[in-house]
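Lecture notes, part 5. Sequence design as translation. It can be helpful to think of inverse folding as translation between two languages: the language of shapes and the language of residues. The source text, in structure tokens, appears below.
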């Protein structure tokens, strides 16, 4: 091969390599532009997320303060639910005590009405406790429960449950249940 041919081959090869280098530099420049755009988008999204996190952190702090306040009032609320005569006035810390509790549907057929009716109908029962709409009864003296004629110990007592305008009385020991209506 002659020297001229080899110089021409090298020039061709050099031209091809320069074209490839230009192509790669152009690709690198495009990649740099794309990388810059992605960094800007990432920064904007990060800022947005940090703002959202900050906002929710403040909201969580407010909710935690409310929870703490509710926990302080929890014992009062639980106790009030057990007493049908006591109601909390809205937007106030004052309590209202009524001598005759009123049911929303029928003023004469409420929880207290049925409790009194049970105690009159079954004089050997005595109310031992109340938990919202549930009442717990024991047997007075050494008598038997009038529905099942069994002796009851403390573990298997009699439970009453108030529902709107009716009352269910249940023997926990033998599972006999009666419904008392007005």
């Amino acid at each position: 091969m002659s020297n001229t041919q080899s110089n021409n081959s090298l020039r061709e090869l050099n031209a091809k390599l320069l074209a490839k280098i230009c192509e790669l530099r152009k690709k690198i420049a495009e990649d740099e532009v794309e990388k810059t755009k992605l960094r800007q988008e990432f920064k904007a999204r990060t800022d947005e997320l940090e703002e959202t996190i900050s906002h929710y952190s403040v909201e969580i702090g407010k909710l935690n303060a409310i929870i703490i306040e509710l926990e302080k009032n929890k014992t009062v609320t639980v106790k009030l639910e057990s007493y049908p005569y006591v109601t909390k006035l809205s937007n106030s810390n004052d309590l209202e005590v009524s001598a005759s509790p009123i049911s929303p549907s029928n003023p004469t057929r409420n929880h207290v009405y049925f409790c009194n009716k049970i105690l009159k109908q079954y004089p050997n029962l005595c109310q031992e406790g109340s938990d919202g709409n549930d009442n717990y009864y024991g047997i007075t003296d050494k008598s038997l429960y009038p529905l099942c004629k069994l002796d009851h110990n403390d573990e298997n007592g009699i439970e009453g449950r108030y529902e709107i305008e009716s009352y269910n009385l249940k023997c926990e020991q033998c599972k006999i249940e009666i419904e008392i209506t007005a």
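The translated text above is only one of many valid answers, since several sequences can fold into similar shapes. The two ends are 122 Å apart (CA to CA).
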